[in-house]
């Protein structure tokens, strides 16, 4: 496992340099999504935002679908770190109910990226329930429901909770007049309280 | 609109004959799904079960995907008739809570057909929320929740309830050791009771 190590020095290694550039580009792409929505993310704009040449973005991610997939992995990984090790209420230290509510709100904040990536990457609906990121989220909210003293069929209740946060569902909800992310987040909190009480 | 009318007589009209044959084939296909699962449905078996030649099945439905789509329409239409006009507890006359529970169980009974059709017909996840059948189910459970005195964001709660019955989710659940349709139905009833109480 020594390949993950390098000796820190004045000059970063090429590997560390590449990782830093990758993070720089994905942060730029994520900022674009937050500012202008996922549809606004183009290879050109990401390059401009990150202050690099367009060729660098293409070399790294091949095409827009590749960029969006990498962005999803990046944001998923960030979310996992936040709910496992980050500050409360998403991370450890808050009451299980509050952590559940925070989890849903954090996932909903990713829906714009997720939905776009699902479209761009032509992700199969069949594989989403077996994806490691999905399993980790399932394990997380199962743990929180047990800690909150929820009774009943907790694994299947966890499926329902995750299904309510599904990107394609939420994207469809957001096209309904009068429905915005704040309202979906409020409905999530209401649902969690009905299940936990 | 006179094209839908015909004069009843000793000899059924060709149109009525065709409709009866179509129903005969779809009933045979539905019976095969119930007995042996959706994977067992082939054009050959449907023809044998209905007592007609294989060519008749191909002329009517073109291929297996066409047959499965027609079967889904057929079963959806049947379900709609049952929950709008059929006997209680699915149809009118039972308490809203009992009708909600019965609705989920009836939908779950269709999951085998639905899941197979979604695969066979390559149905787009984007269109499922705008499909008329989905809208009708949404309107139905929204009405039942209001009648049961549920408070809160009823349209979004209805989305969650329907999402928990989604064919691709339930098919994935059924691949989990220890999970069968009866357990998913019990979880549905539990979920409905948490939302209605």
Automatic annotation (TrEMBL), chains A, B:
SUPFAM superfamilies named in the record: Homeodomain-like
Stretches assigned to the HTH tetR-type domain: 19-79
UniProt entry keywords in alphabetical sequence: DNA-binding
A GO molecular-function descriptor: DNA-binding transcription factor activity
Ranges annotated as DNA-binding: 42-61
Keyword Oxidoreductase: no
InterPro entries named among the record's database cross-references: Homeodomain-like_sf, HTH-type_TetR-like_transc_reg, HTH_TetR
Pfam family, any one: TetR_N
Name of this protein: TetR/AcrR family transcriptional regulator
Organism of derivation: Antrihabitans stalactiti
């Amino acid at each position: 496992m020594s390949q993950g190590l390098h000796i820190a020095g004045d000059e970063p290694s090429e590997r560390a340099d590449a990782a830093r550039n990758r993070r720089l580009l994905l942060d730029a792409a994520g900022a674009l999504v937050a500012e202008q929505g996922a549809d606004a993310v183009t290879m050109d704009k990401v390059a401009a935002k990150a202050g690099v040449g367009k060729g660098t973005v293409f070399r790294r991610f091949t095409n827009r679908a590749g960029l969006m997939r990498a962005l999803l992995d990046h944001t998923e990984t960030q979310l996992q770190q936040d709910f496992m090790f980050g500050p409360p209420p998403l991370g450890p230290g808050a009451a299980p109910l509050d952590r559940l509510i925070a989890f849903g709100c954090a996932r909903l904040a990713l829906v714009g990226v997720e939905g776009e990536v699902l479209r761009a990457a032509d992700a199969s609906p069949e594989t989403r329930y077996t994806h490691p990121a999905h399993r980790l989220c399932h394990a997380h909210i199962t743990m929180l429901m047990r800690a909150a003293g929820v009774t009943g069929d907790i694994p299947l209740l966890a499926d329902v909770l995750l299904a309510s946060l599904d990107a394609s569902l939420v994207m469809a909800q957001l096209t309904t007049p009068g429905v915005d992310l704040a309202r979906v987040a409020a409905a999530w909190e209401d649902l969690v309280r009905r299940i936990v009480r």
